[in-house]
Amino acid sequence: MTTADAIVFAKTIHTLDPDKPAATALAIKGGRIAAVGDFPEIQPHRGTSTVIHDYGDATIVPGLNDSHTHVVFGLDLVRGIQLTDIGPLAEVQRVVAGAASTAEKGGWVTGWGLDPNNFTNTGFNGRLFDEFTGDWPMFLRMRDGHSAIVNSAALAAAGITGAVDFPDESVVEVDDDGVPTGYLVEFSAMDLVTKAMPKETFEVRAERLAALLRAMAAVGITSTHVMDFADGSGELAAHLESNGELPLRLRFSPMINAGASMAELEEAAALQGTGGRRWRVEGVKFFIDGTIDNGSAWLEKPDIYGENRESVWTDPEDFQKALRFFVERGIPTATHAIGDQGVRYVLEALEAAGDARHLAAHRIEHIETIPDDLVERFSELGVAASMQPVHGTHHTRADRTDNWSVRLGEERASRGWRCRDLREAGVIVALGSDWPITPFDPRAMMADSILRRPVERPDVVPVQPEQALTSLMALEGYTTHAAAAAGLGSEMGSISVGKLADLTIFEHDPLMVAPEKLARTSVVGTFVGGVPTQ
Questions:
Q1: pLDDT digits (tens, 9 = 90+) for 338-359
Q2: 294 with 303: CB under 8 angstroms?
Q3: DSSP state of 63
Q4: Cα–Cα distance, 285 to 323 (Å, whole number)
């Protein structure tokens, strides 16, 4: 009989293992689950050095995994004023003017989370802020993270005087006279300006990352799939590990940008498997399109403004070749695809890869609007769906008056975030926040996916309530399905003998309380590799 390093007790343990779904005790040895059962079954594993953790009336579930975050890249995205839910435009201008009045010499006015609905009557134009910012350069990132509004001073600082050609479909918007308006679409365009902004020191970034990871652990997250490997990610993670253990596991998947060269593909492949004790590089992240809100998604038919009609890859066939490069090497892929044509194209590309696609787990991110036939195609091809229904609950309205719904029209808007349909079709549906696009608290994310409205807003009419998940489905989205989407089902996702001892402990049972109470339920603690993190 194995002598455990630790034994953990609680009133309820939801293992999410069909062979033993419920328990009241578990034993840990070498960072893994050694036994699961009740007190008489676990007691023989107790030795003189075994540490006992008794959580009384609490409920233990497998460690929660956020399947889509940007924990390092996001540090740049959340610089400055948080503009989430601030509107109308006049109020945004007032807040920005206040920031400009206190800006330090040589600094910029920055903000994030800007709602595109604020520009319904004016169109996207950075000049709207010139009189409120004066000589201070301004960079405001839209809430989708794929576009930004900058003022004339920022354009000047970046040396942007007209239209710019990019290797992808990024855009510096210009007016009829060829003068930049200050609206930047997609990363290559935004990078022209962000490169001109003052940089943070390594030490400041390291402390910000450490604080972020601590905050994520405090709400129950024990691991996350980081959908990039932004510059400095490895150095920051290694630095934090040199001073102690990371409070959660980080799985980085480097971005493969549109038009990537063979050398860039080979560089990403060479990074696979590198890392530290609680972080590693695994898989890659593609983009096939942008976002519906800024007109850069790929729809089968254009939106009402004639936009959202093409891939971010100038030649989508180059995407297929790049995707196949990784598929044939057994490297997991995740592809951002929001529009129905984008999703269809990625599914077709994975199908065209043949049996090689079974060498690793492959998934599609976001999936904001799809018709019925694509729901079935996910199931037929065994492709996982990684979704953020919170984007629908926070950014769209049941009456279809929001920018996203107006662009799509009733039929396509009614196909939004089809989590329940995908689950009932037998598809793996992993859930995540896409932090910093939306907050990372998994309790609120699960509650929103059950209610199909913001859990903190009982006055809001649910958006497509027929797509609501059950409490169990929502929990599975952060556990068993999250692990399966990354091809890690043999290592994590359930409390099973031999798997990593990653645990989340709730004050109340998340499968028994109402969604509103779930969002307020305290996280008593988390374990990573059998070690308490708080």
A1: 999 999 999 999 999 999 999 9
A2: no
A3: P
A4: 10
Q: Which two tokens stand for residue 173?
A: 């918007």
As a whole number of angstroms, the longest Cα–Cα distance in the chain is 80
Planar angle of CA 277, 282, 287, nearest 5 degrees: 140
Alpha carbon distance 448, 457 (integer Å) = 10
- Given a cut of 80, whether residue 154 has pLDDT beyond it is yes
CA distances from 78 to 71, 148, 365, 470, 504 (A): 10, 13, 21, 32, 27
The H-or-E segment that residue 379 falls in is helix 372-381
Q: Is the distance from CB of 10 to CB of 505 less than 8 angstroms? A: yes
Q: Residue 33 corresponds to which amino acid?
A: I
Buried b (16+ CB within 10 A) or exposed e, 327-363: beeebbbbbbbbbbbbbbbbbebbeebeeebebbbbb
Nearest C-alpha neighbor of 108 from the set 162, 70, 156: 156
Report the pLDDT value the prediction gives residue 263, as an integer from 0 to 100. 97
Q: How far apart are CA 126 and CA 129, in angstroms?
A: 6
Dihedral of alpha carbons 44, 45, 49, 53, sign: negative
β-pairing, 429-431 vs 384-387, is parallel
Within 8 A by CB and 6+ apart from 104, the residues are none
The 3 state secondary structure assigned to 213-243 is HHHHHHCCEEEEEECCCCCCHHHHHHHHHHC
How many Å apart are CA 529 and CA 534, to the nearest integer? 13
- Give the strand pairing for 6-14 and 51-54: parallel
Query: Element (H or E) spanning 141, and its range?
Result: strand 138-142
452: closest CA among 479, 404, 417, 428? Answer: 417
pLDDT of amino acid 294: 86
pLDDT score for 392: 92
Helix H or strand E encompassing 424: helix 419-424
Query: Which two structure tokens, joined as six digits, stand for 479?
Result: 């556990």
Say how many residues make up the chain: 534
What's the predicted TM-score (pTM) here?
Answer: 0.91
Number of C-beta neighbours around residue 232 at 10 A: 16
In DSSP notation, 429-441 reads: EEE---BTSS---
What pLDDT, on a 0 to 100 scale, did the predictor assign at position 314? 82
Contact indicator for 88, 40 with CB cutoff of 8 Å? no
First-to-final CA distance of the chain: 30
Percent of the chain with pLDDT over 90: 89
DSSP assignment of 68-131 equals: EE-TTHHHHHT-SEE-TT--SHHHHHHHHHHHHHTPPTT--EEEEEE-GGGGTTT-S-GGGGHH
